[in-house]
Amino acid sequence: MRLSLLLLLLLLLGPPTTPGMEDPAFPHMGESSQPLPRACPPRCSCPRADTVDCDGLDLWLFPHNITREAQHLSLQNNQLQELPYNELSRLSGLRTLNLHNNLISSEGLPDEAFESLSQLQHFYVAHNKLSVAPQFLPRSLRVADLAANQVTEIFPLTFGEKPALSLSNNRLSYLPPSLPPSLERLHLQNNLISKVPRGALSRQTHLRELYLQHNQLTDSGLDATTFSKLHRLEYLDLSHNQLAAVPAGLPRTLTVLHLGRNRIQQVEAARLRGARGLRYLLLQHNQLGAAGLPAGALRPLRGLHTLHVYGNRLERVPLVLPRRLRSLVLPHNRVAALGARDLAATPRLAELNLAYNHLVSARVHHRAFRRLRALRSLDLAGNQLTRVPSGLPTGLHTLRLQRNQLRALEPEPLAGLDQLRELSLAHNRLRVGDIEPGTWHELQALQVLDLSHNQLSFVPPDLPEALEELHLQSNRISHVGPEAFLSTPSLRALFLRANRLHMTSIAPEAFLGLPHLCVVDTTGNPEQVLIQLPSAAPRQPRAGCP
Predict the structure, then answer these.
(1) Residue 1's pLDDT is what?
(2) CA-to-CA distance for 300 and 481, rounded, in angstroms?
(3) DSSP-assigned letter for residue 287
(4) CA-CA-CA-CA torsion for 450, 454, 458, 463, nearest 10 degrees?
(5) Is residue 534 part of a domain?
(6) What's the sign of the alpha-carbon dihedral 316, 318, 320, 326?
(7) Domain limits at 500?
(8) What does the alpha-carbon distance between residue 163 and residue 180 come to, in Å, rounded to a whole number?
(9) Does 274 reside within a domain?
(10) Residue 9 belongs to what H/E stretch?
(11) Which phi and psi angles does 229 have, rounded to 5°?
């Protein structure tokens, strides 16, 4: 009787589900034509035979029943406090182990846990509670991410031969010694590092990217040899530190140097001679004053493409800039004038940003932009200009003049700008009577026009035919006549919010010739406005038009 019940139970439950784990208490009952279903821990997903995903399940214990075939195991976003050695020891084929965002302490991550993981290549344990990095990690490891822990100590043999290592967001006070010579990327940002010991980076000749931003580095914490042996270094981020000078000994291979948010008062040419391959130099939010970038300071950087110096105290455009410079970003300084030759040395400039300086129209020379034939974007927002500068490059695509003191628009300064696609005149003092006839005539390519936050009492006439987006919000418009948009058949988006419109302020025929119109915003007016569109278009703005 007992045997019959046992056989019946076997038939109901079927064969064991874990491959290779047949119960020896029962004799083999013949070959099956159907493959056995592979094991997967409860609530986890196993999309492939070698992948186990237990992400975000609020697990407090390491899951059991993980197949020995697993090569990729994700346990991120759980509540794990420790890794049991006996469970990990079975998973000798693991190549990826993701433990991001758990509660694992150094005591919960014993060195023995990695003894059998001889094929592990990617180890992610960021956002945990490690105070000490594991003493021995597999030599096979290529990427180790220990960011956002509480690590204060690194063992000399911890990282073997790994090409990518992240120790960011920890509590390291100095650059760890005995780093792998094979390193290609090293993330040490957001620590407490105040010093790089002499010779600490002398063996890392394969290093291409080094991230040291958001630390406590001072000039005394670096020396002329700190970076001099890094003959393949391309990206160096030292931003958000306490440096007062550009570091010495920069390698020739460097392409990007980020020194923003330091205390640099002057850039010396001698410090840049070694980095002649530099293409991007970022010096924003330092303490560069009137003499911060002396003439010729950047002359060694013949291939420099982009220079960011916004948020300093510069009183003029730096002299003798590299001729190949393509982007000069200078907002939030104290530049009050542009002379005829201030920009003559940079004929290849494509982007010039002088927003939020102290420019006044009387001190912008009419030939200031004459040599900039490659210029495509010019930002003069937030200055004290009372008129559009003359002599603008005819190849401009974008012109930003918002937040100035413009009181009039004349045809002459905009003449020849037949490639201009975007023009911002917001936050000025413009009235319709101050816009002279013919002002828009040559802007045949203009697609976006921003006239918001001015003193317009109605829609300006004769707007460019190619216009697709028109911003008129926050003006004094109280009426929109039937002919307001006859010249703009391509209009797709119209913003009229926060004006003085009432229920019947917009003529019923105003939008009849606008087949592409799909956004009309009239919110924030004294009354809800009745509008009639040629099709069932939405009245409120949205991300895009169908």
Answers:
(1) 37
(2) 60
(3) -
(4) -30
(5) yes
(6) negative
(7) 447-546
(8) 8
(9) no
(10) helix 2-13
(11) -90, 0
* Digit-coded pLDDT (tens) for 257-304: 999 999 999 999 999 988 999 999 999 999 999 889 998 889 889 999
By the 8 A CB rule, do 241 and 212 touch?
Answer: yes
- Whole-number pLDDT of residue 530: 85
Is residue 45 within a helix (H) or strand (E), and if so which, with residue range?
A: strand 45-48
3-state class of 272 per DSSP?
helix
Strands of 327-385 (E only): list them: 327-329, 351-353, 377-379
Q: For residue 218, what are the CA distances in angstroms to 242, 243, 391, 399, 401?
A: 5, 5, 45, 40, 39
Q: Is residue 250 part of a domain?
A: no
Task: Encode burial over 48-72: b for 16+ CB neighbours within 10 A, e otherwise.
Answer: eebbbbbeebebeebbeebbebbbb
Q: Is residue 282 a contact partner of residue 259, using CB atoms and an 8 Å limit? A: yes
The amino acid at 179: L
**How deeply is 1 buried, as exposed, middle or buried, from its count of CB atoms within 10 A (0-12, 13-18, 19+)?**
exposed
Q: Is there a contact between 463 and 437 (Cβ–Cβ < 8 Å)?
A: no
In CATH, what number is assigned to the domain containing residue 542? 3.80.10.10
Q: What is the pLDDT of residue 21?
A: 32
Closest CA to 161 of 143, 188, 187, 134: 143
Rounded alpha-carbon distances, angstroms, from residue 188 to 136, 163, 178, 308, 445: 20, 14, 15, 24, 48
Give the residues of the chain that fall short of pLDDT 70: 1-38, 156-157, 160-162, 535-546
| 519 within domain boundaries | yes
Quick one: CA torsion of 174, 176, 178, 181, rounded to 10 degrees? -110
0.90 exceeded by pTM = no
Per DSSP, the three-state class of 110 is coil
DSSP per-residue letters across 196-241 = --TTTTSS-TT--EEE--SS---GGG--TTTTTT-TT--EEE--SS
Question: By the 8 A CB rule, do 457 and 431 touch?
Answer: yes
The Cα angle at residue 265 between residues 259 and 266, in degrees rounded to 5 = 85
Distance CA(108)–CA(110), nearest Å, equals 6
CA distances from 85 to 21, 158, 330 (A): 21, 18, 57
The residue among 119, 144, 120, 148 whose CA lies nearest residue 134 is 144
Which residues have C-beta within 8 Å of that of residue 493, sequence separation ≥ 6? Answer: 468, 469, 470, 517, 518, 519, 520, 541, 545
In whole angstroms, give the CA distance from residue 100 to residue 124.
Answer: 6
Count other C-beta atoms under 10 Å from residue 478's C-beta. 14
Q: Work out how many domains the chain is built from and give that number.
A: 1
Cβ-Cβ contacts under 8 Å for 453 (sequence gap 6 or more): 426, 427, 428, 473, 474, 475
